[in-house]
Amino acid sequence: MLVLIGVLLVIIGFAVRLNPLIVVTVSGIVTALLGGMNPLQILDAFGSGFASSRSVTIFVVVLPVIGIIEYFGLQEQAKNLISKLAKLTAGRVLLAYLAIRQLTAAVGLTGIGGHAQAVRPLVFPMAEGAAMRRYGHVPEHIKERIKGHSAAADNVGVFFGEDVFVAVGSVVLITTFVDTTYHLQLEPLQVALWAIPTAIAAFLIHGFRLLRLDKQLDKEYAQLTGHAATADAGSAQ
Question: Which parts of the chain span the membrane according to its record (predicted)?
Fold first, then answer.
């Protein structure tokens, strides 16, 4: 029962917004110590876990490239491009990215997109540029909201799109678990086919949320404009 203290540490750490890497590492060490592991065993467990999942950290290789292209003005160019397209709004930009992300994930191209590779250097600046063209300025709290919706569009797209592809790791994990635990013969194609309605539902639901973002921003900017007009009238008197 004491090993569950590690879960509590994770919850507390995330609640107070500490560094996620430090929170998870400390929680893992505490859980291991309470479970009776000695320091050498803990170190061996961390090393084995890193070695078995080192492909997850491959995105680090592209970070210097992203940093260089951002330094030379990638975000500014993305904003300028979107600002010239009159009909695009922040919600519509993110809806288009959601569709692209989900379709590419459905055919196994999960590496196309991602927070570090696409959302931060391209998708978020484009959505921000659409908002700037529409409203003239973007306050910090609205910028953070657009940033959150940009990350969410990527998460929803890849999460619900990748299961449609039969050879993705999550489908293999599901079939292996079901076959081993329940002694059934579940085919990957069955999982992929049943993932299609879920993917469509996820796209419709989250797409509605993205389009609703535009209406929310319209309403919020109208209120901000009204407050500014009232303040100007009061100062004039």
Answer: 56-74, 191-211
